[in-house]
Amino acid sequence: MNLGVVTLLLAIVGGASGQYYDYDFALSIYGLSSPNCAPECNCPESYPSAMYCDELKLKSVPMVPPGIKYLYLRNNQIDHIDEKAFENVTDLQWLILDHNLLENSKIKGRIFSKLKQLKKLHINYNNLTESVSPLPKSLVDLQLTNNKIQKLGSFDGLVNLTFVHLQHNQLKEDTVSAAFKGLKSLEYLDLSYNQMAKLPSGLPASLLTLYLDNNKISNIPDEYFKRFNGLQYLRLSHNELADSGVPGNSFNVSSLLELDLSYNKLKNIPTVNENLENYYLEVNELESK
Ligand SMILES: *[C@@H]1O[C@H](CO)[C@@H](O)[C@H](O)[C@H]1NC(C)=O
Ligand SMILES: *[C@@H]1O[C@H](CO)[C@@H](O)[C@H](O)[C@H]1NC(C)=O
Ligand SMILES: *[C@@H]1O[C@H](CO)[C@@H](O)[C@H](O)[C@H]1NC(C)=O
Ligand SMILES: *[C@@H]1O[C@H](CO)[C@@H](O)[C@H](O)[C@H]1NC(C)=O
Asked: Name one GO molecular function term (predicted).
């Protein structure tokens, strides 16, 4: 096996989730890299619009040739992005930068908002302290987990933003409340493993999945969950909910299919709707009646 093949295998393992086109990609594993690829990276011949530059100890973004739409730069040591890094690929659709050393101050200019076709932006496991901005209106899927984010910019105008992953950061409720107002397409929001002491206000009514587990939330405002039209999956485990902070009908929401309230301090079992399929309550302080 030569080094190129090893790198490819790592790329496949690293992106094992079904949302990547790894099946097509696997078929081409022994194929040659197409000629105008960056020399250190791999652009599979049968999938030439993808460029794989994972695990190469890169310190900066390599040359990205025109025609690339899917760019993988995972597991490197990239600590800055120059203003012109993507000048030849303004139609980039996926940009995957997980496991690097990026800080906000070293990401120059409006590099993301210039990418008018960008749908997927993943900067998980880096050194960000704020969300990156501005972002292009085309964005659908934003992942910024496992950083040190304390502050969110506004996601105003991101009409197609559907999936947001922000788990394992240092977010408090105020910055979250301000950020998501007005988003019309947001369906999936993961804010677990942050530092929220209250439920954020202003979350979009379109949410179907809301994960808030592993925060420090101690109460639910009256009717809080009524604003969501179709909320199906709600996780609030590992918070500080006690009976006094949970109004009687808080979780009686007809669209809910899954509710996780485990690892709180509840003594009574909150009322739920009959449509609920999965209800998790372990490790509370339930009193048998
Ligand atoms: C963009 O393409 C031009 C012309 O081929 C080249 O000189 C330049 O280095 C490229 N920029 C990047 C960042 O790859
Ligand atoms: C970036 O994050 C890594 C891993 O968490 C850490 O070792 C390093 O000190 C951080 N660098 C800076 C400049 O914060
Ligand atoms: C949002 O998505 C729709 C459907 O895919 C698309 O037609 C539209 O151009 C997108 N809007 C933006 C601003 O990218
Ligand atoms: C739950 O809400 C429904 C309306 O959605 C209502 O008819 C029902 O009485 C409520 N259940 C309880 C126990 O309050």
From this structure: collagen binding
Q: What is the pLDDT of residues 145-178, one digit of tens each?
A: 999 999 998 899 999 999 999 999 999 999 999 9
Q: State the distance from the centre of ligand 1 to the C-alpha of 10, rounded, in angstroms.
A: 28
**Measured at the alpha carbon of residue 167, what is the angle toward residues 166 and 169, in degrees to the nearest 5?**
85
Residue 257: CB within 6 Å of ligand 2?
Answer: no
Which pLDDT belongs to residue 77?
Answer: 98
The pLDDT, as a whole number, for residue 182 is 85
> Residue 36: nearest ligand to its CA?
1
- pTM: predicted TM-score of the whole model, two decimal places: 0.88
Is residue 283 in contact with ligand 3, taking CB distance under 6 Å? Answer: no
Confidence tier at 48 by pLDDT (50, 70, 90): confident
Domain end (from 115, 144, 173): 144
Percent of the chain with pLDDT over 70: 87
- Residue 254 CA: nearest ligand 4 atom is 5
Among the three residues 144, 176, 193, which one is the final residue of a domain in this structure? 144
Q: Residue 116 Cα, ligand 3 centroid: separation in angstroms?
A: 11
Q: Are 88 and 170 in a shared domain?
A: no
Q: Which ligand is nearest to the CA of 138?
A: 3
Judgement on whether residues 9 and 120 belong to the same structural domain of the protein = yes
What is the domain-level CATH number for residue 219?
3.80.10.10
DSSP per-residue string spanning 137-179: TT--EEE--SS---B----TT-TT--EEE--SS---HHHHHHH
Q: Same domain for 50 and 157?
A: no
Q: Structural domain of residue 110, as residue ranges?
A: 1-129+137-144
Pocket of ligand 1 (CB under 6 A): 63-64, 84-85, 87-88
Q: What is the distance in A from the centroid of ligand 1 to the CA of 89?
A: 10
